[in-house]
Specification:
single chain, alpha+beta, Immunoglobulin-like, five-stranded mixed sheet, 9 helices, 28 strands, 21% strand, elongated
Length: 574
C-alpha cells in the first residue's frame, strides 16, 4: 500500500493540495473536542484539546486507533491505461479500494434503510458508514465475516491504558473486549464498551446486540451518527457527527475523503477479498497525510521524510530529563455532583418535559468546576428519551460548574424512571433524578352532533355517538375513555335494561372500557341497540382526567298517528 500511495501521489500532487484546501475549508470551524449543548445539539464551542480529553470523552471509539490510508485520487473505476511500475504486483487501485465485501455492503445499506424509517430527517448516506468502516476496520478486515455478519475473529483496538491512547478503565467486566482492566474498541465499527452499552443495536434480528456483528455495528453507528436531531445533509452537522465518533481533525478529513470517494461509485466484491489498510494513526513512521504537498521523488533518488528531522543530540552524555508531575485536569478536581435547582420532573405521556435537569460539579471544598463532562443516562423501563430519541447525553459544565441536560420527551409508558448524572472519566458521587410520566387526560368532552338519539323497542339507534376530547383547549389525542349505560344521572350504577352495545360475540354489554380518542381527539362509539324497554336512558362517557359527558337516549314505540287504525269491521288479513 505504501508503494501504491507514492505512485498515486506522484500522479496527482496538485490535486492533493486542492483537496486538502477543500476539506480544510469544510471543517475549519470544528475542533477535536465536542460536546452536547442544552438543546441536545453537538457543539464545538470552546472545544479545544484539553488534558481531560485523555479520558472517555464521549466519542464512540474513545479516540482509539484508526487506519490512515487515503483513497486513490483517480476515479473509483479501474483505469485501463494504468500500468504498474516495474517489479511491482499488478493492482487495479480503483477496483481494489472501491470494492466493498458483499455482507459488509449489505449491512451498510440495510442500516441506511432503517434510519430512513426511524429518523428520516437525518438523511444518513450508507457511504458514510462505509467511510467509517474503512477507516475503523478496513471493512471488517476485508470482509472476514460469517454469513450472519459476525467477524470470524473479534476485532479489537489497543487497550486504552493512557499509553499513547486515552485512559479508559474497564467498564464492561471484559464482556465485549475480554479485558477486565482497561477498555478496548470492539468490532468492525470500533465501539468502546461503555458506548456500546447504550448505543448497541440488533441489526440482524437475532435478538443479540453484538459489536462484532457488522449488521449490529452498522445500525448502531447509524443511530449514533443521527442522534441530537442532526441532519447529515448539512455540512456542519455532518462534521459534528463524524467528530463525535472520533474527536480528531485528521480523522474528520480522512472520513470525508473516503465518503466522497465512495459517493463516486462502489461495487460489491466477495467476502474476504477486500483490501486491508496498512497504515494506522499510531504508526510513528507514517509521513503521509491528505494535506501534504511534498513532491514525489525522482527515480533513483531518495526523498527525505516530510516531517522535521530529529535534532542531533549534543556531544557528551546527555542527562536524563526529569518527569514533570502531571497537571490536574478539571475532572481530577471534582469531588461530587450536586443538584443545581432542578424542579419536579413531570410530563403527560407524549409531551415534552417543560423542566430540565441541572447538575453542578464541585470540589471537596464546594467550589464549582468548569469544563467537566457530565453524562446523563436514562435508566429504568421507559420509552421516554432525550430530544432526538437517545437515552444518553454528554454535556460540559459551564463557568458556573453547571451542566444542563437536553430536554426530556415523555413516551407512552406511564410511571417513574430515573435520569442518572455521572462524571465522565471519574468514579465520584453522582445524582439520580426522578421523572414521572402521567397518563394523557382531557378536561372537556362534547358531542360532535346535536341529533336526538332515538330507537324503537327491540331496534337499533340510527346514529352512532361521536365525541371530541380537548385539554386546555387543545386536541386531547390518545386519551383513555369509558362508556357506561347508567341507571340515571344521579345513579352511576350500570343499568340492566334498555339500550346496550354488543361485544365481538354479539352478546349484550353496557360498559365499554379501553376506548381511546384518535389523533384529532375524536371517538365514535359502536352501534347502540335496545331491548323492549321503553323510556329515557343515560349513556355516561368519561375520560382520563375527569371529563364527563351524559348523553340522553330515548326508546319509544313508533308514532302511529300517521297511519289510521284499521276499522273494527275490517276483515283481518289471512
Amino acid at each position: 500500500m505504501a508503494a501504491q500511495f507514492g505512485r498515486r501521489l506522484a500522479k496527482g500532487a496538485a490535486t492533493t493540495a486542492v483537496a486538502a484546501v477543500a476539506v480544510a475549508a469544510l471543517s475549519a470551524s470544528q475542533a477535536p473536542g465536542v460536546s452536547v449543548d442544552d438543546h441536545g445539539r453537538q457543539t464545538a464551542a470552546d472545544a479545544q484539546p484539553t488534558p481531560e480529553a485523555t479520558a472517555d470523552s464521549g466519542t464512540a471509539t474513545g479516540n482509539s486507533r484508526y487506519y490512515t490510508d487515503l483513497p486513490p485520487l483517480d476515479s473509483p473505476n479501474p483505469s485501463p491505461s494504468a500500468s504498474p511500475s516495474a517489479g511491482s504486483t499488478p493492482v487495479a487501485q480503483g477496483a481494489a479500494e472501491a470494492g466493498i465485501p458483499a455482507t459488509v455492503l449489505d449491512a451498510y445499506k440495510k442500516a441506511e434503510q432503517a434510519l430512513k424509517e426511524a429518523k428520516p430527517g437525518c438523511n444518513l448516506p450508507w457511504q458514510l458508514l462505509a467511510a467509517i468502516g474503512k477507516v475503523e476496520s478496513g471493512q471488517a478486515r476485508g470482509g472476514e465475516v460469517t454469513a450472519d455478519g459476525t467477524t470470524i475473529t473479534p476485532i479489537l483496538g489497543p487497550q486504552l491504558d493512557g499509553n499513547g491512547f486515552a485512559l479508559i478503565k474497564d467498564t464492561d467486566g471484559g464482556k465485549y473486549d475480554g479485558n477486565s482492566q482497561y477498555d478496548q474498541a470492539v468490532g468492525p465499527m470500533q465501539f468502546i464498551p461503555s458506548t456500546w452499552a447504550w448505543a448497541g443495536r440488533d441489526g440482524n434480528g437475532d435478538g443479540v446486540k453484538d459489536p462484532n456483528n457488522v449488521y449490529d455495528a452498522a445500525l448502531a453507528a447509524a443511530h449514533y451518527l443521527c442522534r441530537n436531531n442532526w441532519d447529515l445533509s448539512q455540512q456542519s452537522n455532518l462534521n459534528s457527527a463524524i467528530l463525535s465518533y472520533n474527536g480528531s481533525q485528521d480523522y474528520l478529513n480522512l472520513v470525508l475523503s473516503w465518503l466522497e470517494y465512495y459517493r463516486k461509485g462502489t461495487h460489491e466484491i466477495p467476502d474476504g477479498t477486500g483490501t486491508l489498510p496498512s497504515h494506522s494513526s499510531d504508526d510513528k513512521t507514517k509521513t503521509h497525510s491528505r494535506t501534504t504537498t511534498t513532491k514525489p521523488a525522482k527515480p533513483g533518488k531518495t526523498t527525505p521524510p516530510s516531517s522535521s528531522p530529529s535534532p542531533t543530540p549534543p556531544s557528551g552524555t546527555p542527562s536524563t530529563p526529569s518527569t514533570p508531575s502531571p497537571t490536574p485536569t478539571p475532572t481530577d478536581t471534582v469531588d461530587r455532583l450536586a443538584d443545581a435547582g432542578t424542579p419536579k420532573l413531570t410530563a403527560m405521556a407524549g409531551d415534552a418535559f417543560t423542566e430540565k435537569i441541572s447538575t453542578k460539579a464541585v470540589t471537596k471544598a464546594g467550589k464549582a468546576v468548569a469544563k467537566v463532562r457530565v453524562r446523563f443516562t436514562i435508566v429504568g423501563t421507559t420509552d421516554s428519551a432525550f430530544t432526538g430519541g437517545e437515552k444518553v447525553a454528554t454535556v460540559v459544565t459551564n463557568n458556573s460548574g453547571v451542566a444542563v441536560a437536553p430536554a426530556l420527551q415523555a413516551g407512552e409508558k406511564t410511571g417513574d424512571f430515573t435520569v442518572r448524572a455521572t462524571v465522565v472519566g471519574r468514579a465520584v458521587t453522582g445524582v439520580d433524578y426522578k421523572a414521572s410520566v402521567t397518563e394523557r387526560v382531557a378536561d372537556t368532552l362534547v358531542r360532535t352532533s346535536d341529533t336526538a338519539l332515538t330507537c324503537t323497542p327491540g331496534g337499533q339507534f340510527a346514529d352512532q355517538v361521536e365525541v371530541k376530547a380537548t385539554y386546555k383547549g387543545a386536541v386531547a389525542d390518545k386519551v383513555g375513555v369509558t362508556a357506561t349505560l347508567v341507571k340515571s344521572v344521579l345513579d352511576p350504577t350500570e343499568d340492566d335494561k334498555g339500550p346496550y352495545f354488543k361485544d365481538a360475540d354479539g352478546k349484550t354489554v353496557r360498559t365499554l372500557t379501553g376506548l381511546q380518542t384518535d389523533a384529532d381527539g375524536l371517538l365514535k362509539l359502536p352501534q347502540l341497540y335496545s331491548d323492549d324497554t321503553t323510556g329515557t336512558f343515560v349513556l355516561r362517557i368519561t375520560t382520563a382526567g375527569g371529563a364527563t359527558l351524559d348523553v340522553q337516549l330515548t326508546v319509544a314505540a313508533a308514532d302511529s298517528s300517521a297511519s289510521p287504525s284499521p276499522s273494527p269491521s275490517a276483515s283481518p288479513s289471512a
